[in-house]
Amino acid sequence: MSQFTLLVVEDEEAIRSMLVIVLQQHNFNILTAVSVAEAQLILEDTLPDLILLDWMLPKVTGDEWTRQLKSDESFRDIPIILLTAKGEESDKIRGLDLGADDYVTKPFSPKELVSRIKAVLRRSGKIHDLTQIKFQDISLNTEQHSVKIGDKEIEISPTEFRLLKFFLTHPNKVYTRTQLLDQVWGRSTYIEERTVDVHIRRLRKILAGYQRESWLQTVRGFGYRFTEKQP
Ligand code: CA
Question: Which one-letter DSSP state was computed for residue 106?
Answer without folding.
Answer: S
